[in-house]
Amino acid sequence: MPIKFEILAEDKVTRARAGLLHTPHGVIETPIFMPVGTGGTVKGMTQDALEALGVQILLGNTYHLYLRPGHELIREAGGLHRFMSWPHPILTDSGGFQVMSLKSLGRVTEDGVQFRSHLDGSAHFLSPERAVEIQLALGADIIMCLDECVEYPASHETLQRSVGLTTRWAKRAKEAFARDTGLGIWDTGHGAGEPGQGNRDLGLGTRDSGTESRGSGLGIRDLGSEPLPPNSEFQITDSGSLAPSPEPRTPSPESRIPCPALFGIVQGGTDKELRRQSAEALLELDFEGYAVGGLAVGEPKLEMDDTLQSTAELLPRDRPRYLMGVGTPEDLLEGVARGIDMFDCVMPTRNARNACAFTSEGKVILKNARYARDERPIDPSCTCAVCRRYSRRYLRHLFVTGEMLGAILATHHNLHFYLDTMRRMRQSLLFGEFAEFYRRVRSRP
Amino acid sequence: MPIKFEILAEDKVTRARAGLLHTPHGVIETPIFMPVGTGGTVKGMTQDALEALGVQILLGNTYHLYLRPGHELIREAGGLHRFMSWPHPILTDSGGFQVMSLKSLGRVTEDGVQFRSHLDGSAHFLSPERAVEIQLALGADIIMCLDECVEYPASHETLQRSVGLTTRWAKRAKEAFARDTGLGIWDTGHGAGEPGQGNRDLGLGTRDSGTESRGSGLGIRDLGSEPLPPNSEFQITDSGSLAPSPEPRTPSPESRIPCPALFGIVQGGTDKELRRQSAEALLELDFEGYAVGGLAVGEPKLEMDDTLQSTAELLPRDRPRYLMGVGTPEDLLEGVARGIDMFDCVMPTRNARNACAFTSEGKVILKNARYARDERPIDPSCTCAVCRRYSRRYLRHLFVTGEMLGAILATHHNLHFYLDTMRRMRQSLLFGEFAEFYRRVRSRP
C-alpha cells in the first residue's frame, strides 16, 4: 500500500475536507498545493527555500524530465528524489498534457501519442504503458495515467471519443503499472546496466500491491510471488541482463525506489454525463486516487465550478482527489469547497517570473512605474520572508533591470501566498469553520 | 570618524595582517572579500543567503546604480542599505571603471569623463565631484575617488599623464567630499523635494569630520559649525528648497545616512616609480584608506605581484588597503601576503553563472558531459550548503537546461569558496601561522 489517505475533518456545509496523505516519502497535509518543479527544479527556488516555505510535495513534469536529462539517467541516479535532492513526496504527471498542448507536434492515435521534442524535433512516442514506465523510472510517490485532455470548446462527439480513449488508456496504464511494479524487480541500468536501453519487462508475472489493505485489487492477480508487505519497496537491481540473476541480490539503499500510487484522471469537458461515464469507468478500475483533468482550459469559471462540483461528487470519499493544473487562489477555494484535496498550477511561479505577485488585495504588477518609490512590501499583510525584508520599489528595480533576484523573491512570495491560502483553509476545516471562512473570502469586494 | 581600522595580528615573514575595520554599518573582519552587488543585488543571491554565507560587506557599482534606478531615487529611499535591505557595510566604486571600460562610450578630459549610457545612449558626465555626490546619495560606508585606470600595456607617457590626472582628481574628490559631508546637512529630494533634480550644494561651509580622532584632517577647515561627534551622522532633510530652513528639523530615522569614509586609489600601471609618485601624492591628501587600482588588467601575473608588493609597502600601516577588482583565489593569497586587507571581484559570481565552479582542486566546468552521471558534490571537501545537498549531475542538468537554479547554486558555492579562503587566511594570521599556510598552498601541485 504505497499511500494511505486519512480524513481528519469534513465540513458540514460544503464538501471540503482536511486529511493526511501518507506516501512513501512522507505525510502530506491536505488540502495541499503542489508547486510545479518542471524539469527537476521549481524555477528560481532552492530546495532549502522550498522546505522553509513548508512545501510538502512537488509536481515533476514527465515530458521535460524524459527529454532532459532523460528518465534512464534519473533512474540510474536512484530516482528523481535523489537526483534533485528532494527527500519529500513527489507527484509526476504523465507527460501527455505537454505533448498534446504543443499541438503541432503531437498526433493522438488509439495506441498513444506521437510527438516531436520541442528542443530538437526528434520523434518520440508516448503510450499509456510508456508513461507508466517513464514515471516508474522517475520514481515519484504518485504517478498519473496518460489521458487525453481536449480543448474548450469541443463537440460532444470529440469529448465522447476522448473519454472512451482516456478510459481505455487508464485500463492499459493500470495493467502496465501492475506488471511493472508487481514484478517487484526491474532493471535500472544502474551500475552494470547500459544506460539508455529502456525499461525491460522481465515477464515474470505480476503482483497486486494494494489488495490487502485497500480491499480492492489491481485487477490482475499475483501469479505466485508473496504479497508485498506494507510500505514495501520494489527492488531495482543493477543487472543489465534480461535473465533473472541466479544469485540473490542485496540492493544498495540508493537502488531501492518505493512503489508509487497510480491515479486515474476523469475527463469529459463540461459535459456532466460524460464526466459521470468517465468517473464510473475509472472507479471500476479502482485507482488509489482520482484526478479531475480537462478543466481550466478556457471554459467559463461558473461552468468549471459546476462541472467540478458534479464530478467530485462521483468520486469515492476515501480516496484523494486532485484537480489538475488549477488555478487562481479563488479556484483553490472553490475546489476545496467541492471536495478537492490536491492542486498544482504554474500560476504562482510563472506569474512571479513575469513580475506578477498575488496578494491579499489582488494582483500586484511589480514592474509598474507606480511602485518605483513604494516602500511597502509586496503585501503589507503578508508574513513571508520577502515581505518582511524587501520593498516594492526594490522589487520593481530588480524586474526593470532584469535581475534574477526579482523572479526569485516574487516566486518565494507567491508560493508562500498559495501555501498559506491552503493552510488557512485546512485550519478552518480542522476548527470546523470552513463554511464561514469560505463565505468571508467570497464576500470580499 | 566614519571608520576605524584595528590591526589584530601581523605575520612575521610576509606583510600579511588580520584586523577589524569598524564602519557605520558594522565591523568587518579583514582580510575580507567583498562580493560584487552590481545593481543593488549580488546576482542570484538573496540578502538572507549572503548573510548565511557570512558576507560582511558588499560592493555596489555606482555606474549601474546611477543609471538604474538612479542615485536620487536611492537617496530618497534612505540610501542603498535601505533600498536593497542590506543593513551591513557597503563600499561603492566611483563608476569610473565601468565608464572607461566601455571604451567607445567614454571620453576622458581634465574635468572628468563624458560617457553615454550603455542602456539608451543618453549622454552623461562624471567628474570627481559628481562621483562623490552620487556615492554620497547612495550612502555607502566607504566610497572611492574617481580615478583613471589605463589599459595594459600603456606607454610611460600615458601612465604618467594618468597618474597626474588621478592625483588631481583625488584632490578634487577630497575637497568635494569635505564640502558635501562637512556641511552636515544636504537635501535628499526626499518628501517635498522633487525627484531627479540632482544634489544641491547649499554652500554653507565645510566641516572636518575626522580631525579629532584620527589626528589628521580632511585638509579643509571647519568654517564655524561644531565638529561632528564620533559616529556622527549628517542629516538629510526633506526640504526641497535651496534656502536653509528657518526651523530646526528633526529628521526621521530613515533620512539619516551615516557619514562614509573616502578612499584614494593608487595608479601607475606596472611602473614602480609612477606608483611611488601616485602613492605619495595620495598620502599627502590623507585618505581613510588606500586602494591599488589598475592591476589585473592584462599584465603578467608576476609583474602584478611585484607591482603590488612595492606599492603596498608605500601605504601606511594603519590604514586599510584595498586591491580593486582582483582576482583568482591565488591572487587573494598573494595579495594578503603583500599586506592587502580588502578585495572585490566579479569572478566568483560571474564564473558561477557560466557554470564554472572554484574548488579545492581547481575549476570545475559544470556543463561538462563528464559530470552527467557524477553524483559527487561540486567539491567533495567543501562544507557549503550546496555541496552538502546537490550533485554535479544535478548541477549539470540545471545548466544544460538553462535553469536559474544552476546559477544560484554555483554562485552560492563560489562565494562560499572565496569567503572561506579569506577566513582560512585570517585564522592562520590570528594563530601566527600565515607564512606556513602560504607555503602549503603555494606548494600544491
Helix and strand layout, with pairings?
2 copies of one chain form a homodimer.
Chain A: E1 4-10, E2 17-23, E3 26-30, E4 32-34, H1 47-53, E5 58-60, H2 62-67, H3 71-76, H4 80-84, E6 90-92, H5 96-101, E7 106-108, E8 113-116, E9 123-126, H6 128-138, E10 142-144, H7 156-182, E11 185-187, H8 211-214, E12 233-237, E13 256-258, E14 261-266, H9 272-285, E15 289-292, H10 301-314, E16 321-323, H11 329-337, E17 342-344, H12 347-353, E18 356-359, E19 362-365, H13 385-389, H14 392-400, H15 404-430, H16 434-442
Parallel strand pairs in A: 4-17, 5-6, 6-10, 10-14, 11-12, 14-15, 15-16, 16-17
Antiparallel strand pairs in A: 1-2, 2-3, 7-8, 8-9, 12-13, 18-19
Helix pairs in contact in A: 6-7, 7-9, 9-10, 11-15, 11-16, 12-15, 14-15, 15-16
Question: Could you provide a short overview of the structure?
Answer:
Chain A contains 16 helices and 19 strands. Chain A is an alpha/beta fold. In chain A, helix 8 (211-214) links the parallel strand 11 (185-187) and strand 12.
Gyration radius from CA atoms of chain A, angstroms: 22 Å
Q: Please, what is the average pLDDT of chain A?
A: 86
* Biggest sheet statistics of chain A: 8 strands, parallel
User: Which spans of chain A of ≥5 residues are poorly predicted at pLDDT below 50?
Assistant: 184-254
The proportion of residues in beta strands of chain A is: 15-25%
Helix content of chain A: 25-40%
Number of helices of chain A: 16
Sequence of strands across the biggest β-sheet of chain A: 4-17-16-15-14-10-6-5
Shape of chain A: globular
Protein structure class of chain A: alpha/beta
Which oligomerization state do the chains in this entry correspond to? Answer: homodimer
Largest interface: A-B, 38 and 38 residues
C-alpha end-to-end distance of chain A: 46 Å
